[in-house]
Structure formats: structure tokens, C-alpha cells
Write a structure and sequence with these properties.
The complex is a heterodimer of chains A (115) and B (113).
Chain A lengths: L4 E3 L2 E4 L5 E6 L6 E7 L5 E8 L2 E4 L8 E4 L6 E5 L8 E8 L9 E2 L3 E5 L1
Parallel strand pairs in A: 2-11
Antiparallel strand pairs in A: 1-3, 3-8, 4-5, 4-9, 5-6, 7-8, 9-10, 9-11
Chain B lengths: L3 E2 L4 E5 L4 E7 L4 E9 L6 E7 L4 E4 L2 E6 L4 E6 L8 E9 L6 E3 L3 E6 L1
Parallel strand pairs in B: 2-11
Antiparallel strand pairs in B: 1-3, 3-8, 4-5, 4-9, 6-7, 7-8, 9-10, 9-11
The chains are: A mainly beta (115), B mainly beta (113).
Chain lengths: 115, 113
């Protein structure tokens, strides 16, 4: 009964490199959400996806950030040309998508450090 | 604009006593509220939720109270246990959506022996 899986758990990148964060939702879940947590802050919504569709990307920075949830495989959050300010914990959550009251279940997060 | 606020960054409670964590919100379009617990280096774990049509929801040692007129909710943990020591986040969702959660900044609970 695996929960939400994220990898890698820790990722170190130099400024200007690309970061790819992966999220596999819980079995039977078709909705994926990405959140970012900066130090000493709460989680901030970034993007909400269903299979092959972006439903809400209102929290995504306009540049360098993109997300996808393909028909097969995990959801990917991609950050191009990383900067120090991108250093944060990135959490993925999933839900079944059956009702509006669905609970979102979170993965362990990926801690990105930009040198 | 912080729409969900947890004004107490930290709280210390003795084992066996009641822990009360508070949360205020400003957006009257929120109609579903959740509490998550988070240990260091882990993801948030769902604890309990409440719909705006209710004013109380209970699950074992955890009870959430909602006061819509005051736009305030609270999480009661009784009795508190050392394993409850963690950061607690309040989160809210907008009416009629299955989308994003808006989180508070968290309250760090320390349960002492």
C-alpha cells in the first residue's frame, strides 16, 4: 500500500542547471498537486494536474518552471536554469479525484539545494 | 496576502494536557478545512478535516472546531502525547473546487514530559 513517492529526496544543482523532480501518486489517484515550502514558511501551491492536463497553474512562476503528468509514468516538475532562490522543499500530493472533498495525501518531498 | 493565518509559531504543552492550535482565515469562500501534521524532513500527514456545514469534527484524540462567523478554527488534541510534537499546518480549500490548498505558516507543538 505505497503512498505518494517522490524522487530524488535530495537534489543539489549549481546555478544555471536544470532540476527534475518526480512524483508517483498513490495507486488509484489521478490528481497531482505540487507545493513548495521555503524555509520557515508554509506550503505554497504551485500547480494542479490530472493525467495529460494542467488544471490550475496559478501558483507557478511564469518563467523557468513547468510541470507535466503524462499518461504513463510519474508527474515531473521541471525547473530550468535554477537560481539560489529556488532552494526549497518541493512536495507532491495526490488525490483520487472522485469528489470535491477528496483529501490530498503528501509525499516525503524533494529538498532542492542550489549552490 | 496571507489568507490563512496561524499566529502562534510555537506552543509547549505538558504530556496528558490539552493542546489547542488556532487558525484564522480571511476568505469567506473557503468551505473545507484540513489539519496536517509534519515531522522534520517528511511530508505533511493528514490529520482531520471539517466542512463548513459543520462546527465540529472528532477523530479519536483530535477534534476540530469551526466558527464560521469568526472565520476561526481550532484543533484540540487531548490528551497530548510526546509523539504529537511536530509542526501543525492548517489548510483551506475554496468552495466548489477540488484544487489547491491554502496553508497557514504552521505552529510548532512541543509536548513535554
Amino acid at each position: 500500500n505505497a503512498g505518494v513517492m517522490q524522487n530524488p529526496r535530495h537534489l543539489v544543482r549549481r546555478r544555471g542547471q536544470e532540476a527534475r523532480l518526480r512524483c508517483s501518486p498513490m495507486k488509484g489517484h489521478s490528481h497531482v498537486y505540487w507545493y513548495r515550502q521555503l524555509p520557515e514558511e508554509g506550503l505554497k501551491f504551485m500547480v494542479y494536474l490530472q493525467k495529460e492536463n494542467i488544471i490550475d497553474e496559478s501558483g507557478m512562476p511564469k518563467e523557468r518552471f513547468s510541470a507535466e503528468f503524462p499518461k504513463e509514468g510519474p508527474s515531473i516538475l521541471r525547473i530550468q536554469q535554477v537560481v539560489r532562490g529556488d532552494s526549497a522543499a518541493y512536495f507532491c500530493a495526490s488525490s483520487p479525484g472522485r469528489t470535491l472533498a477528496d483529501t490530498q495525501y503528501f509525499g516525503p518531498g524533494t529538498r532542492l539545494t542550489v549552490l | 496576502d496571507q489568507q490563512v493565518k496561524q499566529n502562534s509559531p510555537s506552543l509547549s504543552v505538558q504530556e496528558g494536557r490539552i493542546s489547542i492550535l488556532n487558525c484564522d482565515y480571511t476568505n469567506s469562500m473557503f468551505d473545507y478545512f484540513l489539519w496536517y501534521k509534519k515531522y522534520p524532513a517528511e511530508g505533511p500527514t493528514f490529520l482531520i478535516s471539517i466542512s463548513s456545514i459543520k462546527d465540529k469534527n472528532e477523530d479519536g484524540r483530535f477534534t476540530v472546531f469551526l466558527n464560521k462567523s469568526a472565520k476561526h478554527l481550532s484543533l484540540h488534541i487531548v490528551p497530548s502525547q510526546p509523539g504529537d510534537s511536530a509542526v501543525y499546518f492548517c489548510a483551506a480549500r475554496l468552495t466548489g473546487t477540488a484544487s489547491k490548498l491554502t496553508f497557514g505558516t504552521g505552529t510548532r507543538l512541543q509536548v513535554t514530559l
